[in-house]
Amino acid sequence: MLKEQIEKLAVAINQDVVSNRRHLHAHPELSFKEYETSAFIKRKLDEMEIPWQPVADTGILAIIHGDKPSDQVIALRADMDALAITEANNVEYASLLKGVMHACGHDVHTASLLGTARILQSIKSEFGGIVKLIFQPAEEKLPGGASVMIKEGVLENPKPHAVIGQHVMPSIATGKIGIRKGKHMASMDELYVTVHGKGGHGAQPHQNIDPVLIAAHIIIALQQVVSRMANPHMPTVLSFGKLIANGTNNVIPDQVYLEGTFRTLDEDWRTEAHSRIKKMAETIAESMGGRCEFKIVKGYPFLVNEEKLTEQVYSYARHYLGNENVQDLEIWMAAEDFAYYSQVADSCFYLLGTGNKARGITAAVHTPVFDIDENALTVSTGLMAYIAVKRLGN
Ligand code: NI
User: Fold this and answer.
1) Quick one: which of 59, 62, 61 has its CA closest to 34?
2) Distance 103 CA to ligand 1 centre (A)
């Protein structure tokens, strides 16, 4: 009954959700600068007569009270920020701002949460409990909008019994979602390394201290952290994507600069790995006559989907979409600042299928040609509304 009602509403409001998504897509804003996006959301909330308050500058916390008696509280979260990418899609709703693009689907998440809000607001009399709508800035930029929103109290007064989030996923077909119980996404730390040597003529290596060779040894040796020190049961990734040794064919430079990323899913191991990585790199540089400055900038923690809540979300999703449309996910070594909610409250984060191979909608997120199958927007709005009212005990 409730299911059919929500399904119908999700279809009825679809045009509006699509047009909101297109508006947001055309007007992307970078992390912590989502001013127009924030104003747009506030206008839409006002139109729906949903009370809201600003949080963390551009963030918003809105609240819907179900009319029936219940002490249950659930929080639904959408991120709002775009990326520094120039859109290459030739669509009518393409980004109007060169160099900024919603290439991670956060326009979809925001438009969807507005849609879910509209559904919930229109069936207020049918459910009890409190729904907190979290429109969160800056998922893409450290320290992460989630950590700021939490610090500013979005999970207090009242505390939610569950926090739910979703993310677009082009590798999952539209109409389906993917979920994983337990640890799901990795912690992410940024590595910044400067190897100091002594530059000079390439023909006289004995008079120099070669930072290029030192850097090469460091890169290779650090793979032991993954292959020899990490517990084989604990996924661990260490990758370097930047290596600048700006000499020439016969000039050894004074220094080499490296940037990398470290990812895992265990806080104790994360801390231990940091100290091992640093020590190993510094010792290697020193033993080769050079010096290494190793800076680790801590990013997001790992994301864990609380078992009991996720089991519930699983069954609600199967009921809403059909068993065949809810798939299991493997651990994913990407990071997501929803992890902050998952560290302090029972949380569940699932992936929304937005791909469509037949229509050529397959591009990965964070690429200039990323787009979604907008048919996913009836799933994204309706399913989250259904999860909310079911979880609130209706
Ligand atoms: Ni994202």
Assistant:
1) 59
2) 8
